[in-house]
Write a structure and sequence with these properties.
This protein is of the alpha+beta class and 649 residues long. The protein has two domains: 337 residues, Chloramphenicol Acetyltransferase, CATH 3.30.559.10; 275 residues, Chloramphenicol Acetyltransferase. The chain is built from 22 helices and 18 strands. Strands 11-7-6-8-9-10-1-16 form an eight-stranded mixed β-sheet, with helices on both faces. Strands 12-18-17-15-13-14 form a six-stranded mixed β-sheet. The chain has a two-stranded antiparallel sheet with strand order 2-3. The chain starts with a helix and ends with a helix. The protein binds coenzyme A (COA).
Length: 649
């Protein structure tokens, strides 16, 4: 890709919709969207809901529309550290014009409030469509996270298959819990959370389309009874329920896996690699693929399966790179076309990846759900592994796995070559590490009476400032699952307080007490924003809603959206998310913007597990330096707190 193409892509801007971060950069894209395409939204929120889950949803409140002035004030505060005083003056003027009585803001607000009266979640379908299904970048690196499980003991293919069978058995067991409404209702404080994402993670597949993809969900009244296993780029249908409708045992599943690996050893035409390409490329190839009825049958089987299981070949030699970082790359991109990059169906919501030397995890397509339900699935599967498997009856005959054939035309061969080239370029460009900070975990900030999440967020802000000597716009996802159909709101973690804190920490003339004071103000300021965001009162979804309602009504998008404060505060150089799991695991993904970092973390009591990445092609960023800067920041924050406490004694 030449520099001008790259600039063009950047301008189009729908970057990393996965974490829902696309909306700002998306704004430029939406600028050019005509209102009729907005009106043609076809994504229905309730498609996949299991009838039982649907009933437990009924008491959840609708997503509120925040008051206009509250959002605008918050927007101004969040943009302040990222612009000059002169630029800020212009932004303030624009905000005044926008919010004036009779101005565009109140008119759009009224339209949005009217829409909100007709639906229980005014953002849900818009979000699915604009943040995911219309996103044209590849899902690999740009959208789909990897989830790295604790490393397992696997020394040979036999053990790889035993682990795979146990993982499948554990995941099917989790599916039974979902279907039988046996998952404990999750809460935030006292508030029950929307559980519907759980019923969407299995049996779902993204289907490529131009200009918009779609999601195919399993029929909740006739749920799928098979998984698909990928082995050497071949795909096999593997039934996981017996004739009596009961889940097969681990042994029965294992027998089927043995049959697969004893079959064809020659790798298949790498059809799966097509799913890693830019969505328009894949959309075109898909049209070619479905000209053949045999391919249609194979595709249907993949789409309808509960999930994919990738029995991988060995990874390439990464030299001295640690196990976690290797597994992170395997989960995010399969290490390219010469390795496991085609042993995938990246459109499938859940793909378990089982490596040859104990790597285990999930590659997950983000559009139907956020990280926490996927982490819930992981925790269940890891429990089953740790217990030595489920003790299910092994009676009854074992069905045979069914090889799924694909025929390829010369056009498809060509598309495969393009996809291989594109995937390899992405793989080469991504610098990613799995990293564990061992100095302390969430118990330390708690002992200091500070929110652990806000504390970690401020350490990340500090690390960025330490490296770049300037503030970085910073995205954190906050769950809005308190509300019906809720997904996320953005926490804008960069604030005047976070910058003052980073500056104070790096200023030798400041006393430790002054540093601690600045830290507490930053942490508490972040916590305040978090509470507003989880209560549906952030800046980002509201401003996106106002823009989309303008487009829907053929109203010109207001100047405010082109202003430097909006653009810069939306260029999220730091893309973060807490995905907590019970086990020693972490989620990882690519940065949101070309000159950015991604940092996803699982805070445990006494350590923090993280996935950190940056693009090698950006001369300003380095994931390795960021990791070191973060470690130093965590250490410095600890030391200054401990020192000031000792001096008080
Ligand atoms: N003093 C002592 N303890 C405190 C404290 C303080 N001042 N503030 C918070 N704590 C405690 C809390 O009570 C809580 O205790 P618990 O572990 O016993 O429950 C713990 O510290 C953690 O709280 P905190 O770190 O403040 O945040 P959180 O767990 O509420 O998480 C978010 C904050 C934003 C991560 C969470 O609300 C959220 O939205 N998570 C989902 C994000 C998501 O969807 N990510 C995936 C996107 S793909």
């Amino acid at each position: 890709m030449g520099p001008s193409d790259e600039a063009m892509l950047k301008l189009m801007g729908p970057i990393n919709a996965s974490r829902g971060q696309a909306l700002f950069t998306f704004s430029k894209n939406l600028w050019n969207v005509n209102s009729s395409s907005v009106l043609r939204a076809t994504v229905g929120y309730q498609h996949a809901l299991h009838p039982r889950l649907l009933s437990s949803q009924s008491d959840l409140p609708p997503l509120p529309v925040p008051p206009l002035q509250v959002t605008l004030d918050k927007f101004l505060r969040s943009a302040r550290p990222l612009v000059t005083p002169e630029e800020f003056q212009t932004t303030q003027d624009l905000v005044k014009q926008f919010s004036a009585a009779g101005g565009c803001g109140p008119k759009l607000q009224k339209l949005l409030e009217e829409k909100a009266k007709t639906t229980r979640n005014w953002m849900a379908d818009w979000w699915l469509r604009t943040a995911y299904l219309e996103f044209r970048y590849p899902v690999v690196v740009w959208s789909s996270p990897g989830l790295v499980f604790p490393h397992q003991k696997v020394c040979n293919q036999d053990e790889q298959l035993t682990l795979a069978a146990r993982v499948i058995s554990g995941a099917v067991d989790f599916k039974c819990l979902i279907d039988n409404n046996k998952l404990p209702l999750e809460r935030m404080g006292k508030d029950p959370l929307d559980m519907s994402q759980y019923s969407k993670i299995m049996g779902t597949c993204r289907i490529p389309g131009i200009p918009r993809d779609s999601l195919q969900h399993a029929d909740p009244c006739n749920p799928p009874k098979h998984v698909v296993v990928a082995y050497k780029n071949h795909f096999f249908e593997v039934p996981v329920y017996g004739e009596n409708g009961e889940p097969l045992s681990e042994d029965q599943i294992r027998k089927q896996l043995c049959e697969i690996v004893s079959g064809p050893v020659k790798p298949a035409v790498p059809i799966g690699i097509l799913t890693s390409d830019q969505r328009d490329n894949w959309g075109k190839a898909y049209q070619e693929l479905i000209k053949d009825p045999k391919n249609v049958c194979s595709l249907e089987t993949i789409h309808k399966s509960l999930f994919l299981v990738c029995l991988d070949d060995p990874n390439p030699n990464f030299g001295s790179l640690d196990k976690r970082s290797i597994a992170a790359r395997q989960m995010v991109h399969g290490c390219g076309s010469k390795n496991n990059g085609a042993n995938r169906w990246f459109d499938k919501t859940i793909q378990f990846v089982i490596g040859t030397t104990g790597e285990l995890g999930i590659t997950y397509e983000h559009s139907p759900a956020e990280g926490p339900p996927v982490a819930g699935l992981m925790d269940h599967v890891v429990d089953v592994i740790n217990k030595g498997g489920l003790k299910l009856s092994t009676s009854g005959c074992v069905p045979k796995p069914n090889h799924l054939p694909f025929n390829t035309s010369s056009e498809l061969q060509c598309a495969i070559q393009t996809a291989e080239k594109n995937l390899d370029a992405m793989v080469d460009d991504l610098e990613m590490y799995g990293y564990v900070y061992k100095g302390y975990g969430k118990e330390f900030p708690k002992s200091q009476k500070m929110s652990p999440d806000s504390f970690i967020q401020m350490a990340i802000q500090f690390a960025f400032y330490r490296l770049h000597k300037l503030p970085g716009a910073h995205y954190e996802s906050a769950s809005t699952r308190k509300y019906f159909g809720g997904r996320t709101e953005t926490i804008r973690s960069c604030s005047c307080e976070s910058v003052a804190f980073a500056e104070a920490m790096l200023d030798c003339s400041k006393s430790d007490e002054e540093k601690v004071k600045a830290m507490k103000e930053a942490v508490n300021g972040h916590k305040k924003y978090t509470l507003e965001a989880v209560n549906g009162c952030g800046v980002d979804r509201h401003l996106l809603g106002l823009k989309l309602i303008a487009l829907e009504n053929g109203i010109q998008v207001p100047e405010l959206y082109k202003d430097v404060a909006y653009v810069r505060s939306s260029h999220m150089r730091i893309s973060t998310s807490q995905v907590a799991g019970k086990c020693e695991a972490f989620m990882c993904y690519g940065p949101l913007v070309n000159d950015g970092y991604a940092c996803c973390y699982n805070p445990r009591a006494n350590e923090i597990h993280m996935g950190i990445s940056a693009f090698k092609s950006c001369p300003d960023t380095s994931a390795s330096k960021f990791k070191d800067a973060l470690e130093e920041s965590f250490d410095d924050m600890h030391n200054v707190l401990v020192k000031t406490q000792k001096s008080k004694l």
